[in-house]
Design brief:
By secondary structure, the chain is an alpha+beta fold. It contains 2 helices and 9 strands, in the order βαββββαββββ. It has a single domain, classed as HesB-like domain (Hypothetical Protein Aq_1857, Chain: A, Sandwich), CATH 2.60.300.
């Protein structure tokens, strides 16, 4: 399970509007690399792949997660700090043993 907070949902909808995206959702995944070993990836997708896990907020913001990434992201909360000027998405990953200062890289 991945939780999408209300703040993150608003940010996703806002970003989709800014990009002119009317269908699909945000792919959230991981890849090898970064200062802590694994990095988060974010990418717009028109539709999920057949193997994806799909998570949806109460107001319809969708994220797609591939099975390999889900192993590392299960239990994560996707949030957004509206007080930050850039209003970036924040990942609260209970599986991360270490995290870099920027929050985009983690280790298990």
């Amino acid at each position: 399970m991945i939780e999408i907070t209300e703040a993150a949902s608003k940010r996703i909808h806002s970003a989709m509007d800014q990009e002119g995206i009317t269908e699909g959702g945000l792919r959230v995944g991981i890849k090898a690399g970064g200062c802590s070993g694994l990095s988060y990836i974010f990418k717009w997708e028109q539709s999920p792949t057949p193997d994806d896990q799909i998570f949806e907020s109460r107001d319809g913001a969708k994220i797609f997660v591939d099975p390999k990434s889900f192993e590392y992201l299960n239990g994560t909360v996707l949030d957004c700090d509206p007080n930050m000027l850039s209003q970036n998405l924040i990942i609260r990953n209970p599986n991360a043993k270490t995290e870099c200062g920027c929050g985009l890289s983690f280790g298990v």
